[in-house]
Every structure is written in structure tokens, then in C-alpha cells.
Amino acid sequence: AEFAARADEIEAEPADLKTVGLVANLFEDAGDELSIITRFVQGRVFPAHDGTKLDIGPSLCYEALAKAAGTNVSAEDIEARLADIGEIGAVAEGLDLGGQQGLAAFGAGDGQDGLTVAEVDAELRGLAAAAGAGSTDTKLDTLFGLFNRAEPLEARFLARLVLGEMRIGVGEGTVRDAIAEAFEVSVESVERALQVSNDCGLVAETARDEGTAGLDSVHLEIGRPVKAMLAQAGTAVDALESWNTAAVETKFDGARVQVHYDGDTVQLFSRNLEDVTDPLPEVVEFVDDQLDVPAILDGEVVAIDDAGDPLPFQEILRRFRRKHDVAATREDVAVELNAFDCLHADGEDLLDEPLTARHECLSGLLDAGVSELTITSEADQVADLEAAALEAGHEGIMLKNPESAYTPGNRGQNWLKRKPDVETLDLVVTGAEWGEGRRANVLGTFLLSARDGDDYETLGKVATGITDEELADLHELLEPHVRSETGTEVDIEPAVVFEVGYEEIQASPTYSSGYALRFPRFVGVRADKSPADADSLDRIERLAAGQS
Asked: Does residue 149 share a domain with residue 25?
């Protein structure tokens, strides 16, 4: 109840600086629950480095709420209220919860009154661990037990937490600044510790208990993935004007992986920090054969044909999605690792070393599979390298500042991606419409949105470029994320990212972003990206301004 009251106060505060102060006060008072609360305010149950998911779709949440609300309320009633109100937390708060009796009604906490933060955390972790036959019933019972004991305000934030959308205006930057303010340490020390640990709970407790010295002692840990360093779109002119010399390497049309080797065991993590070790056994075998010391590497896994030439991005997704019959799929789609960075080697973190030094270390660790890095100050040479990359079937080139450090999660000016193809955007699917004719039984048109803080703003629909087979796959992918339906329109939880090509971005009052895509076409699903990695409204605005 105390957490819910504080979250309510934070949600009501419009000023960013005051929000940081309120979150800092919450952290100061959190006591033993500090680690949990740093995650809960962001709508997280697990640390960012942990790929574990609650795996609770909207429909299961609605069913649990309906069950806790009484025999006269159905999941369809919850959907109808959501369509009217527009936000699941407000729906949950407005229900008459807590009246159910019987053994199942006790749910979490053996029937004790008064939910605690630690108890909710433990119950949701147990829920996430449920698997196999009967796991859906177990999850439903757990959620029902929690909602049945929740007061109205608690129910608002519990429902949001379950669906991973706290919506109180607290993101990673706010948490970083609040930790610094609460425990009187520098923002820079907190940010660095967050980058190398990817665990806001650990960093908050370290700042409180050990101060700056403790934060400075936080290092990379093999088996604990960190966010990938990101790139912006750019040109050779941008790179050479900024850095005088540029490091040029191939931009592979594959899936990003972070390789962790502890001297004995190999683990592979996707860009979303999910463990993808099992689907990629040949990469595991390659790393195990090549590495002699513990290391953390960054690279790209690319699908290749029998001649070793690269295949399109969608082919590598077939491997990433495969959980069963991996050996058979391995025969159909071969993959190889192209490593291009080294974050840690033999007990030493290398994040602060310049790119050239990290690449030299990488070349010393691996006899093969290292992306070639060319340092040049000549625009003509950059053009030649780009042409060679395209001729070889790759996506383009990367331009990197030779002196740059590796900054996890940062999309700065030190890495630029250069693709000559039509510009594409990575956009979140937030709605859909049922198809027509032979496509009447599947979702056929998809509403696209760009990130805007914690919200999503629409800027168009896409239905072009999708085959019947792809539509069937997309329907199956999106169906678990359906929130509600009104006629032919479907509201979808932000969970799936599409790559979309377009001819132009136009100003338009039709969509909430103020923009619309001219001639959008579906390119593919970015299964390696979460909604948080999708393109922002700021980028849309920059691209639109750059057209004129």
C-alpha cells in the first residue's frame, strides 16, 4: 500500500526534477526492499540483464481480474471497460476486488492480510518459473490470489506491473538520477555502474551501502549480459568531419549476439539479453574451440549458404526462434559468428579502451571470425569499402570513431551505420485490423507507432509487402498480445517490432505523432528488438526535417 501511494504521487507529478526527488525519497525509505523497488517503479520484476519473463499476456491478466471481481464479471467485461477507459490500471482500480472466498481465494501469502512488496516480488517470480502442463492454471491462481487481496490503488499498479507497463514516468534515466540524489553519489558513477552491471537494484544497494568507492568497484561479470552499444545513421562525411579518421567495417545483415565465455562454458545472449545459447550450437562450438581465456565479445551471427555467402536477415531469425529440432534446422540454415568487439578479456574490463585497442585484443583471442577493421581518412576509400561490402551481399558498412570507448546501451555519435538502401524504421505494432476476403480470419493491417518516452505515438498502417504465409505467422505472433477488439479494430499491447520501408515521412493530422509514412511496406519482424529499442518520435522528426 505504501509503494502504491508513492507511485500514485509520482504519477501525478508533471515536473521531471520533482519526479526525480520523489523517486529518490522512495529509495531512501525502501530499506530491505530497495532492490525490488528500483525495478518495480520501471515496471520490471527481474533485473535488466535477466531474460526471464513473466509470460503473462493481457487475456490471462483480464481473466484473473474478472475472477477476483466476482462471478458476475467476465474477461470480456474487463476488455469492454478497457476499451472505455483506455488503461488497465484504472480498470483494475475501479473493480470491486477482494470478495472471493474459499481455499483458492487465499492465493499468495497463505491468506495473510496486507500485500508486501517482497511478497509480490516472490509470487511473481514463482509465477514466471511455472512451466509445463498446468502452468497456465498456476499462473491464473497466483494472479487471482494477488488481485483478490489488493486494495484499489494497489490493484492499479499490480495490474500494470504484471503487464510490464508501470506508466508513472520513471525510466532508466530517472532511476539513475534518483539513486545519485538519494545516496549522495555522482550521476557519472551511477551511470558507469549501471552500464557494467545492467542491474539497477545492485547499483542502488551499492550506492547506499558503499558509496562511490563501491560503485567504482562494480565490473563486468561473465554470464551477466550488458546492453549493446548502438549506432546512428550517418555518412562518411559525418564520420571524417567529426573524427578525421574513421574505422570502417562490414555491416552484417544478421542478429547481434553477446558472447560470454568463463573458461569452461559458453553463453550467447541476444540484443534483447535473452539467452540464445541452445539455438546456436555451432557458434558455441566455434567459441569453445577458439577461446583460451575468459572473455565477453560482441558480434553478429549471420546465416550463410553452402558457398559461405550471407543470406537475408529473416533466415537467421529461423534459428533464433527455434527451441526444438535445433539439429534439423541447423542442417537447413547454417550460421557463423562475425565478432567485432571485445568488452572483457582474461579478467580485465576493456570498455574504456579505444576501439582500436579492443579490436587488437579481439584479433589476439580469435584465429578466425573477426570482422576486418580498416582505418582511413579518405572518403574514396570508404566508398570502395562500402561497394565491396555490398558486392559481397552484406548490408553496408559501419563507421566508428577509432578512439571511442564501448558504452553499453548508448546510441551516441561514435558509431554510424551507412546503408544505401531505402530508409527503414523499426516501429512498434500497437493495433491491427482484421483482413478481408481470403484473409478474413487473420489480422491483415497493422498500426505502427514510434516511442515517445513511456508512450507510443501512431504514424501509419502497413498492409503492403506481406505474403499470406507471413500474415498467418504474424497473426500467431500478435494474438497473445491482443488487449481488446472493437468491430474490425484490435488494440495490441506494445510487444512486437516491425521493420518498415517507406518513401517519405509527411506531416499529417491523421495520426497522433503528427506524421504519416508515404507508401509504407513491411520488411520483416525485428525479433531481436524490444519496443524499447524501436525508433523514437525524435528520430521521426529529425528524418522528416532532413527531407526538406
From this structure: yes
Is residue 300 a contact partner of residue 256, using CB atoms and an 8 Å limit? yes
> Do 478 and 385 share a structural domain?
no
Report the pLDDT value the prediction gives residue 420, as an integer from 0 to 100: 62
Q: What is the pTM of this model?
A: 0.80
Annotated catalytic, 461?
A: no
Which residue of the set 67, 227, 251, 461 is catalytic?
251
Query: Domain containing 414 — which CATH number?
Result: 3.30.470.30
Question: Domain of 498?
Answer: 424-547
CATH code at position 501: 2.40.50.140
CATH number, domain with residue 63? 1.10.3260.10
359-379 pLDDT tens trace: 999 999 999 999 999 999 998
Question: Can you state the percent helix, strand and coil of the chain, rounding each to 5?
Answer: 45, 20, 35
Read off the pLDDT of residues 221-280 as tens digits, 9 standing for 90 and up. 999 999 999 998 888 888 999 999 999 999 998 999 999 999 999 999 999 899 999 999
Q: What are the φ and ψ backbone dihedral angles of 509, each rounded to 5 degrees?
A: -80, -5
Domain boundary among 365, 388, 418: 418
Q: What span, in angstroms and rounded, lies between the C-alpha atoms of 185 and 207? A: 7
User: Which pLDDT belongs to residue 422?
Assistant: 57
348 and 480 fall within a common domain: no
d(CA 156, CA 149): 13
**Residue 206, exposed/middle/buried by CB under 10 A (0-12, 13-18, 19+)?**
buried
For 318-355, give one letter per residue: b (16+ CB within 10 A) or e: ebbebeeeeeeebeebbbbbbbbbbbbbeeeebbebbb
Residue 501 lies in a domain: yes
Is residue 300 packed enough to be buried (19+ CB in 10 Å), middle (13-18) or exposed (0-12)?
Answer: buried
